[in-house]
Amino acid sequence: MSFHSRQLDFFAALDRPQPKPIVEPSHRTTRGKCAYQTGLTAEDTAARLYENRGYRVIARRWRGPRDHGGSDIDLVVSKGPTTVFVEVKARRSLEEAAHSVMPRQWSRLERAAESYMLMHGMGTNADIRFDVVLLDRHGATQIIENAQPF
């Protein structure tokens, strides 16, 4: 049995490791990465807003322990004795951002704040509040102080 030279090349190619096919990211993956970056940018903007008002940023994207639900807080800022837990919402419009804060998110934020207070030795009489920072796609911002009573 005789082999042609092209057949021998084929057999040699079978022994080589094959390159992995290039997989294009799904629309969902791309959208998720974009939303993540938008969230980071919105939180940076919110932090600058508070810093410009004389607040000190204590934590960004603070995550509570898993046994307390693993909830997170976008920003924790302070000014004097007041500690502020901040939820940041970026949407197409400020109105859309305002309507995106649901009761379930408030309970998540309250659990996270309780965990934060326990972990940092803050008493029940601590001066705290919950704010929401709204951002739209044109760069407009709005801070809603005391958005949720604790």
From TrEMBL:
InterPro entries: Restrct_endonuc-II-like, tRNA_endonuc-like_dom_sf, UPF0102_YraN-like. This is UPF0102 protein POI8812_03100. GO terms for molecular function: nucleic acid binding. Belongs to the UPF0102 family. SUPFAM superfamilies: Restriction endonuclease-like.
